[in-house]
UniProtKB/TrEMBL annotation:
Membrane disposition: Multi-pass membrane protein
One Pfam match: 7tm_1
Native source organism of the sequence: Casuarius casuarius
GO process annotations (BP): neuropeptide signaling pathway
Chain ranges passing through the membrane: 12-40, 97-122, 134-152, 181-203
Entry superkingdom: Eukaryota
Gene3D superfamilies with a match to the protein in the record: Rhodopsin 7-helix transmembrane proteins
Record's subcellular location: Cell membrane
InterPro entries (alphabetical): GPCR_Rhodpsn, GPCR_Rhodpsn_7TM
Name of the protein in question: CXCR3 protein
A Gene Ontology molecular function term of the record: G protein-coupled peptide receptor activity
Keywords: Cell membrane, G-protein coupled receptor, Membrane, Receptor, Transducer, Transmembrane, Transmembrane helix
One annotated Gene Ontology cellular component of this protein: plasma membrane
Length: 212
């Protein structure tokens, strides 16, 4: 459990403290996720709601691995791709999906830690493995839908520049553009809100433990 706590601290720094990921934090995050996935396979680690959420965070780094491997293959072997703009947008959207999944799940863990500290008995029926799996599944579905919308916007934007589009496509382009802009605004404000909420949760937990 100490190793899992260290991993959570690393992820909190990577996604909720740093304004943007850098090469060092990304590399350490990938190593931590790989070690965590291996560690969670051990019979010594009990299956709890927290470990389910941690496992989902570690698996989200697969998206980062896909982006790094793709960039490496394209750069090393000089692979020619059909649409550079589409591929570049897809890889960027995968990185955004990884960050959003991780932030949401880290906030779920912070909320769970708050419940354990202040409402251990009352929240027992909420903090179950089943609910943790359901929460992870919902987060993945929502962020996947967000990624699809962003990719659709990039695809239609590229086509609108390269060719003449019909009125129906124009309406679709306007709709996807506005929806993507709304999602980006919501993501920005939600990110600020989650940072404040996480600080509040751990502030209360820290002083509660100190008083004890």
């Amino acid at each position: 459990m100490k190793d899992l706590r260290r991993y959570l601290v690393l992820k909190y720094i990577q996604y909720l403290v740093l304004s943007s990921s850098n090469a060092v934090s990304t590399f350490l995050g990938l190593l931590g996720s790989l070690y965590t996935i291996i560690l969670l396979q051990s019979a010594k680690v009990s299956s709890k709601s927290t470990t389910v959420l941690i496992s989902s965070i570690a698996k989200a780094d697969i998206l980062v691995s896909v982006c790094l491997v793709s960039d490496m293959i394209i750069w090393t072997f000089d692979v020619r791709i059909l649409s550079t703009a589409f591929t570049s947008a897809l890889l960027q959207n995968l990185l955004t999906a990884n960050a959003h999944i991780s932030c949401l799940l880290l906030s779920c863990i912070a909320f769970e830690a708050y419940l354990i500290t202040f409402f251990p008995m009352e929240s027992r029926h909420i903090r179950t493995v089943k609910n943790a799996k359901l929460t992870s599944r919902i987060v993945w579905i929502l962020i996947t839908a967000e990624c699809v919308i962003f990719q659709m916007e990039d695809f239609l934007k590229a086509n609108s520049v390269s060719a003449h589009i019909s009125s129906n496509c124009t309406l679709l382009f306007d709709f996807s553009g506005r929806l993507a802009a709304l999602l980006r605004s919501l993501s920005y404000f939600l990110g600020i809100f989650l940072r404040i909420v996480n600080v509040y949760f751990y502030y209360k937990i820290f002083f509660s433990m100190s008083n004890r």
